[in-house]
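Handout for the seminar on molecular recognition.
Each group receives one record of this type.
Step one: identify the two inputs.
Step two: read the structure output and locate the region that could contact zinc ion.
Step three: write two sentences on what you found, then compare them with the reference statements printed after the record.
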Amino acid sequence: MYLTIHGLVLRVTAYKDQDALLTVLTPDHGKLTVKARGLRRKNSPLVAPCQLLAYGEFTLFEYRGMYTINEAHALELFTPLRKDLQKLSLGTYFAQAAELLSQEDLPNPELLSLVLNCLYALSKLNVSEYLVKSVFELRGACLAGYAPDLDGCHMCGAPYPNRFDISQGCLVCTECQNRTSEGIRLPISSGILDAMQYICNCDSKRLFSFTAGADTLEKLSSVTESYLSTKLERGFSALDFYKSLMIPSDYLS
Ligand SMILES: [Zn+2]
């Protein structure tokens, strides 16, 4: 049986002598594992559409629950991103996290759309990497069922809490913070809280339409990263590599 899908390549793993297994994020089938025959052979026509972070159209042949690529062509390769090691490593982190945020056979077109929009923003829009990273991490968490409660202190209801509890995904004010000491609570400014509320609630077409100071975006990115890695209970090699490429802001001042 043949099946034509659109999808984004999240991972490429060597398989047998010259083949590879791809993990592809699709709108209608969640993530799929597909076999790319002869991908590691010289001059394989599958090389471009089957590379990491390529978005393309794939015609698959299904036999006994295993999918093999019959034909593939790339629709978007995000070429500018591939020429910038820092952006490429950030995009690879998005792919690694999206693999955990998605499930097989569970359609999640919004997650695919989020990853594609973030890759597009990194490669073509002139927006801060911290902003794109924060949008991916927080919106991705929401789409996977981990939407935080950002509506006032979760203990007393005070309107402008200044701590975010990353394990519970909720806000805590100073007074309640002093009364209890459980959990990891990161300090957040009103600017960070505004940005978090925006990312969780905005229309998906306006994800990158907010602004904040460079310092706020850097701290926001640190909060959303801690939140996502706590929810997923793991770290990411591509994120570690990305951070190793960053110049600490102390060096620039
Ligand atoms: Zn409180």
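Reference statements: The first helix runs from residue 79 to 82. The chain has two domains: 2-76, 81-252.
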